[in-house]
Design a protein that fits this description.
single chain, four-stranded antiparallel beta sheet, mainly beta, 2 helices
């Protein structure tokens, strides 16, 4: 399935290529950093920065764009996104910004064109909330965090 998404390159992102899928079966388009040429954005351990992409989009009604971390950055560098997934609503027309946080031990450097996140375009279902006095029962009931089972590590640690 595919959907047309209108894309506007902002002045500071004009020379960067449009996001692309890296393989035929990829779910996410890679977003690049549109920071100033010949500069390096350094994110210190424990710090976060809003990284511009130089892109604004117009999603069709009934769709959203989710901004998600790149797994390789998370594994290799300890770098992820603060609000993951970030949501771009269909009526938003501003620049897509990526809030990157460094959970790693070393400063993380970003230069112009680095792939910093991925964007997934997905359909949206809006819920109609129906207020009731009682909810139906279930096997789980009101059991919350950790109520559906014990992990292997918890069982073996006694």
């Amino acid at each position: 399935m595919s959907v047309d998404v209108r894309v506007k390159r902002l002045p500071h992102g004009k020379d960067l290529p449009l996001p692309t899928y890296q393989t035929a079966s990829s779910a996410g388009l890679d977003l690049q950093a549109a920071i100033a040429p010949q500069t390096t954005l350094v994110i210190e351990p424990g710090s976060r920065e809003l990284v511009p992409t130089g892109l604004a989009i117009e999603l069709p009604e009934g769709f959203e764009a989710q901004i998600r971390p790149r797994s390789g950055l998370a594994l290799k560098k300890g770098v992820t996104l603060v609000n993951t997934p970030g949501t771009i609503d269909a009526d938003y027309r501003g620049e897509i910004g990526v809030i990157v946080i460094n959970h790693g031990a070393d400063p993380f450097e970003i230069v112009r064109g680095d792939r910093i996140a991925q964007m997934i375009v997905a359909p949206v279902v809006q819920a109609r909330l129906v207020e009731v006095d009682d909810l139906s029962s279930s096997d789980r009931g009101a059991g919350g965090f950790g109520s559906t089972g014990v992990s292997h590590s918890q069982r073996s640690s006694g």
